[in-house]
Amino acid sequence: MTENKTYGYIRVSSTDQNGERQLVAMRAAQVPEKNVYMDKQSGKDFNRPMYQKLLRKLKKGDVLYILSIDRLGRNYEEIQSQWRYLTREKEVDVSVIDMPLLDTTLSKDLLGTFIADLVLQVLSFAAENERSNIRQRQREGIDAAQARGVRFGRPEIPDSEATKEAV
Question: Is 13 a catalytic residue?
Answer without folding.
Answer: yes
